[in-house]
Amino acid sequence: MRILISYPTDVGIFDIGQSLDKKYHVIFNDESLGNYSSVQEAVDSLVKDEISPIFKPESEERINTSTLKIPSDYTQWDSNY
Questions:
Q1: In a domain, 17, yes or no
Q2: Which helix (H) or strand (E) holds 46?
Q3: Cα–Cα distance, 55 to 19 (Å, whole number)
Q4: pLDDT of residue 20
Q5: pLDDT range class, residue 59, cuts 50, 70, 90
Q6: In the predicted model, what is the mean pLDDT of residues 60-70?
Q7: Who's near 62: CB < 8 A, 6+ residues apart?
Q8: Is 76 helix (H, G, I), strand (E, B) or coil?
Q9: DSSP code at position 2
Q10: What's the domain count of the chain?
Q11: How many C-beta atoms lie closer than 10 Å to residue 30's C-beta?
Q12: How many CB atoms lie within 10 A of CB 10?
């Protein structure tokens, strides 16, 4: 998996990566939270909290990614890769 862009939040860094089959993945803690046909589709799913559920390790509380102020414009993400 090749990481394309990243965005830091209070709960950790979210990445968008691309696999060898050309699918785009939302990645958190080295785990894919879904695969998509475009970078924008992956970002939109993350911003709308339409991804596989993720939980805070210390409390097992579900993280609602729509509350993390992640920009839907992926050009605002870090792309130093």
A1: yes
A2: helix 39-47
A3: 24
A4: 97
A5: confident
A6: 95
A7: 53, 54, 55
A8: helix
A9: E
A10: 1
A11: 7
A12: 8
Structural domain including 26 reads 2-68
Q: What tokens were used for 74?
A: 């992926």
Q: What is the pLDDT of residues 3-36, one digit of tens each?
A: 999 999 999 999 999 999 999 999 999 999 999 9
For residue 43 the two structure tokens come to 């970002």
Q: What angle do CA 70, 80, 21 make, to 5 degrees?
A: 80
How far is Cα 65 from Cα 18, in angstroms, rounded to an integer? 20
pLDDT of residue 80: 64
Q: How far apart are CA 54 and CA 56, in angstroms?
A: 7
**How far is Cα 77 from Cα 49, in angstroms, rounded to an integer?**
17
Q: Higher confidence at residue 80 or residue 69?
A: 69
Is pLDDT at 73 greater than 90 in this prediction?
Answer: yes
Residue 78 domain flag? no
